[in-house]
Amino acid sequence: MGSVGAKEVPELLSPEGLRIDGRRLDELRPLKITAGALHQAEGSAFVEWGANKVMAAVYGPREVHPRHLQQNNKAIIQCRYNMAAFSVDERKRPGLDRRSQEISKVISEAFESVIFVEEFPRTSIDVYIEVLQANAGTRCAGVVAASVALADAGIPMADLVPSVAAGKISGHIALDLKKEEDNFGEADLPMALVPQSGRLVLLQMEGHMTRAELTEALDMGIKGCHQIYGKMKDALRARYQVTEAPPTEVTA
Ligand code: CDP
């Protein structure tokens, strides 16, 4: 066990190769997706993923604000990622900081290449991502929530966009890092995939890993994305499942 400043570094892998929450290296945290969680929005989704809780709401296609951003040949995608002040251990200052702006930008760009934006010129598709509880991997949870919310809103898209981070802890490549692993691990590699075409539409890296490790992390992350893809489709199926109408009572 080493130390960073005054902080003790926790043991991230047991001698049996299990992580602090008992997961194997290639195992996701429990993930629950609810499509259509809000009544006001045109599309919405709530994602509970490990200790993360993220809500996404979609509006549009609608008039562009601010007006000068309007594009004559396509819709613009405006994603706004926000962390609630109460979402982290130490109160986060409310409002859009640089980190939130960067995450909002990369998520908007990810969806621009998937949504059929040419079908809605001079409009904006607005996606609000609110992190209510954060425990690492919130941008990925945000992409998953936004993607299901966009589908729930009926926005035409080439595919859903599953997302997850792979990373490196105690010298090993691992899937879906939780907070302690993100803080004390060696690397974090969030990604988002378009499963049908195999395209990555978001890829970022913090920390360091070798080229061989990067390949392993990408493979592990892509496999994880396929698992998440299944859960996203299940959530949408559950939302639109046609339930048998209860028998109507006939009174004379
Ligand atoms: O959440 P994600 O992994 O996408 O982004 P990050 O910048 O790597 O942040 C990792 C985690 O650090 C977040 O999920 C939060 O749990 C925590 N964090 C925090 O406590 N305060 C902040 N201002 C930002 C992040």
Q: Brief overview, please?
A:
The chain is α+β, with helices and mostly antiparallel strands and 252 residues long. The protein has helices at 98-112, 138-152, 179-184, 211-240, and strands at 3-4, 7-8, 31-35, 43-49, 52-62, 76-83, 124-133, 163-169, 172-175, 187-194, 199-203, 206-207.
Description:
The chain has 252 residues and is an alpha+beta fold. Helices cover 26% and strands 28% of the residues. The chain has helices spanning 98-112, 138-152, 179-184, 211-240, and strands spanning 3-4, 7-8, 31-35, 43-49, 52-62, 76-83, 124-133, 163-169, 172-175, 187-194, 199-203, 206-207. The protein has a five-stranded mixed β-sheet with strand order 3-4-5-7-6. Strands 8, 9, 10, 11 and 12 form a five-stranded antiparallel β-sheet that branches. A hairpin with a 2-residue loop joins strand 1 (3-4) and strand 2 (7-8). Helix 2 (138-152) packs parallel to helix 4 (211-240). The radius of gyration is 20 Å and the shape is globular. Residues 1-6 have low confidence and may be disordered. Cytidine-5'-diphosphate (CDP) binds at residues 88, 92, 99, 134-139, 179, 182, 188, 190.
Outline the secondary-structure elements.
Elements: E1 3-4, E2 7-8, E3 31-35, E4 43-49, E5 52-62, E6 76-83, H1 98-112, E7 124-133, H2 138-152, E8 163-169, E9 172-175, H3 179-184, E10 187-194, E11 199-203, E12 206-207, H4 211-240
Parallel strand pairs: 6-7
Antiparallel strand pairs: 1-2, 3-4, 4-5, 5-7, 8-9, 8-10, 10-11, 10-12
Helix pairs in contact: 2-4
The structure holds cytidine-5'-diphosphate.
